[in-house]
Amino acid sequence: MDRTAQRALRRTGRTVAYDPSSTVSPLQVRAAAVLEAGWTGTSTVPSRSLYPHQWSWDSAFIAIGLRHISPLRAQTELDTLLAAQWADGRIPHIVFNPSVPLDAYFPSPDFWRSSTAGRTAGAPRTVQTSGIVQPPVHALAVWLVHLADPGLSRARGFLTRMYPRLAAWHRYLLHRRDLGGGGLVSVVHPWEQGMDNSPCWDRPLSRVTPAPARSFRRADLDHGSPEDRPTDLDYGRYVRLASDYRDRGYADGAGEFAVEDPAFNALLIASEYALARIAHELGAASTARQARAERLTAALVERLWEPAAGMFLCRDVRAGEPIPERGVSGLIPLLLPSLPRDLAATLVRTMCGPHFGLGGTTRLVPSYDLLGEAFDPHRYWRGPAWINTNWLLEGGLRLHGERGRADALRKGILHTAGASDFAEYVDPYTAQACGATGFGWTAALTLDLLHDRPAGDRNGVTAIKGGDQG
């Protein structure tokens, strides 16, 4: 390992032993430097300019990468996030840094008013947060961080702290967000699903009267091209949904937007498997959680699988019907170990077919149907490729025996991350960088894919797949 690499890794707080004679690639050094630049002392911002606070699923993905260079810092990342959990169990999608000016990001703490509007739901009093949530990838992240250094994890009581918080988080989703009555979780805002302006939301969003443009100022346009970001009309609808939810005291079930999303539910299922592994590690019963994951998988197939589309579709709960748009969300259930074999094979064919083009017209899986009328290769989640969704799909391909395709996707992710300066997202045809560069989860998941895993842990997804619970 050269001195430059040693300095970069030491600055990240690396606590695991390494071989001084080993080599570290320039890409690893660059990725570690991105995470170092975003470190606040207790968590990592996704982007210093565009996203200057702590985001929920960003921190989970960042911890998955950080575990390879500093398991201690990866644990701290998740400790900080879950310390902001509400009493009703929800993990908010933003934890605000009080040292950041209010006008640096919108919606800011004075919009969400978590400590007052969220009082009934149990919002914390000592930290300001948003009132909505993001995809539940946290238990998977916690388990992977534990595996990076089990001795450190046990000495610090990491899983003992995390388990009751994660159990409460899943309980909130399963009990409070089953708005369709079919056992799946609904999101009540596009920001909750994480794919903000996906065309999958256009139909349910069309029922929402947008907030007047003069009632808010978009700080995101100070740091990103308007062509790469959601439109003002979309943003007005996001603001209206969020303000209505806030004004109801963050009570679930009464809003105009409620969607069962395949990726959100697939990540909950993956985290249920991970929570079963955590329970077993702690000496608690784990079979009920594994059984719940399998029941949720069956519910996902029953409610959201669309044979004609060859993939899962979102379901508009208010309209009581599927949304006929092909988004990358509908491929993410490939990461589930109990997905029926024929459905997994169909998802692979769809991913590699004309709608997503993997291995043919595209090197990475785009966020939306290449043939869809709303496809836009640069506009956020309406077509660009994202590293986090491709990381999940790489794991899903590997899990279901598609080693060659998984290897090719891994190679494509690593090349794109390096060539784009760790871009937030990229044009799926040209890999042109879009959004922010030096983006946190792009760097973190690059580190994860660069890590030389033992044969039994070729990707994060395999860590939750049945078998030995140790």
Automatic annotation (TrEMBL):
<dbReference type="InterPro" id="IPR054491">
    <property type="entry name" value="MGH1-like_GH"/>
</dbReference>
<keyword id="KW-0326">Glycosidase</keyword>
<protein>
    <recommendedName>
        <fullName>Mannosylglycerate hydrolase MGH1-like glycoside hydrolase domain-containing protein</fullName>
    </recommendedName>
</protein>
<keyword id="KW-0378">Hydrolase</keyword>
<feature type="domain" description="Mannosylglycerate hydrolase MGH1-like glycoside hydrolase">
    <location>
        <begin position="51"/>
        <end position="442"/>
    </location>
</feature>
<dbReference type="InterPro" id="IPR004888">
    <property type="entry name" value="Glycoside_hydrolase_63"/>
</dbReference>
<comment type="similarity">
    <text>Belongs to the glycosyl hydrolase 63 family.</text>
</comment>
<dbReference type="InterPro" id="IPR008928">
    <property type="entry name" value="6-hairpin_glycosidase_sf"/>
</dbReference>
<dbReference type="InterPro" id="IPR012341">
    <property type="entry name" value="6hp_glycosidase-like_sf"/>
</dbReference>
<dbReference type="Pfam" id="PF22422">
    <property type="entry name" value="MGH1-like_GH"/>
</dbReference>
